Amino acid sequence: MTASDQRTDPPGGTGVLAGRPVARIGFGAMQLPGPGVWGPPRDRHMALAVLRRAVELGVDHIDTAQYYGPDVANELIHAALHPYPEDLVLVSKVGAERDAQGGWASAQQPEQLRAGVEANLRSLAVERLGAVNLRLLDAGDGDGDETAGHGIDLDSQLAEMVALRDEGKIGGIGISNVTAETLRQALPAGITCVQNPYSVLDRSGEPILHLCQQHDIAWVPFFPLGSAFPGMPKVTEHPAVVAAATTLAVTPAQVGLAWLLAHDPHVLLIPGTSSLDHLAENIATADVRLDTDTMKILDDLALPPAGP
Ligand SMILES: NC(=O)c1ccc[n+]([C@@H]2O[C@H](COP(=O)([O-])OP(=O)(O)OC[C@H]3O[C@@H](n4cnc5c(N)ncnc54)[C@H](OP(=O)(O)O)[C@@H]3O)[C@@H](O)[C@H]2O)c1
């Protein structure tokens, strides 16, 4: 495809999110604000261009949060894309906020969840969000999962999310940073999607993906390429991924994303990028097919080492 082309097919095929069809390759907006997901983008013009190009290339599912920036990602989405295409599904999250130093703090009181949804509705200028993830933070380092968060019981958080859905403010309830046990507890609320870290190099979420399969819930992995945060293994740098990319004459990012798409039909991708070239690459993953041998090599990557 040339830069001016528009795809006519949904990139990656079609999945379902909160009852709506979406292309399986979407876009995550977390890379658009400044470094550390804090403050304005380095290049506003580029950030707006990435969003517009994503939609031109067939993206109809954008993942965002009011706390990206904070207030930056949503403002960019609105500036780039409003009035939105009818088929665009905007998904956000509540349950966290930023402190004055750019740290991530829990905001999981029911009234904070409601205020978070209202803030997203205002900044994105919509009456209803496609889905909203309840983002669970642990009580420790703010980057974990496990608990419903700071002693606020999960059921009261979910009750608020259900109320917001009943009021028509959100199309579906997602949950993020969950254990299998927490997801099981949340199922009666009607969960449409789960966001957990997961990639060809990080299969810690596999038991939760199994639950998503059983309950037909979309699995929307974050950090599908290993994230921009320092100190995390980057999918694009792993020697086996790089070797597979060379063999198939594609890019390492495409290998990592194609593995996710092939791994399970419940996977919906939201890779994040601030680069037009990377965006085009990520969406062109739709045309990448991994042969059986390559799948086997990649499947085995995250297995624990054999022997003592
Ligand atoms: N639910 C949650 O709690 C949660 C948490 C984190 C993230 N998320 C969502 O998940 C989305 C994805 O996660 P993420 O953005 O943190 O991490 P990611 O998609 O795994 O990785 C983003 C990093 O990969 C780079 N990248 C993207 N495409 C590339 C390519 N083709 N080749 C080489 N490098 C590439 C980006 O740099 P460039 O900008 O230079 O391309 C950036 O450094 C986020 O955008 C956000 O919407 C949700």
Summarize the structure.
With 308 residues, the protein is of the alpha/beta class. The protein has helices at 44-56, 72-81, 110-124, 154-166, 180-186, 206-215, 239-248, 252-263, 276-284, 292-299; strands spanning 14-17, 20-23, 27-28, 61-63, 89-94, 96-98, 104-106, 131-135, 173-176, 191-195, 218-219. Strands 3-4-5-8-9-10-11 form a seven-stranded parallel sheet, with helices on one face. Strands 1-2 form a two-stranded antiparallel ribbon.
Explain how this protein is built.
- The protein is an alpha/beta fold and 308 residues long.
- The chain has a single domain (14-301), classed as Alpha-Beta Barrel (TIM Barrel).
- The protein is 35% helix and 13% strand.
- The chain has helices at 44-56, 72-81, 110-124, 154-166, 180-186, 206-215, 239-248, 252-263, 276-284, 292-299; strands spanning 14-17, 20-23, 27-28, 61-63, 89-94, 96-98, 104-106, 131-135, 173-176, 191-195, 218-219.
- A seven-stranded parallel β-sheet has the order 3-4-5-8-9-10-11, with helices on one face. A two-stranded antiparallel sheet has the order 1-2. The chain has a two-stranded antiparallel sheet with strand order 6-7.
- Helix 5 links the parallel strand 9 (173-176) and strand 10.
- Mean pLDDT is 93; it is low at 139-148.
- The structure holds NADP nicotinamide-adenine-dinucleotide phosphate.
- The site of NADP nicotinamide-adenine-dinucleotide phosphate has 29 residues, from strand 8 and helix 9.
List the helices and strands and how they pair.
Blueprint: E1 14-17, E2 20-23, E3 27-28, H1 44-56, E4 61-63, H2 72-81, E5 89-94, E6 96-98, E7 104-106, H3 110-124, E8 131-135, H4 154-166, E9 173-176, H5 180-186, E10 191-195, H6 206-215, E11 218-219, H7 239-248, H8 252-263, H9 276-284, H10 292-299
The chain binds NADP nicotinamide-adenine-dinucleotide phosphate.
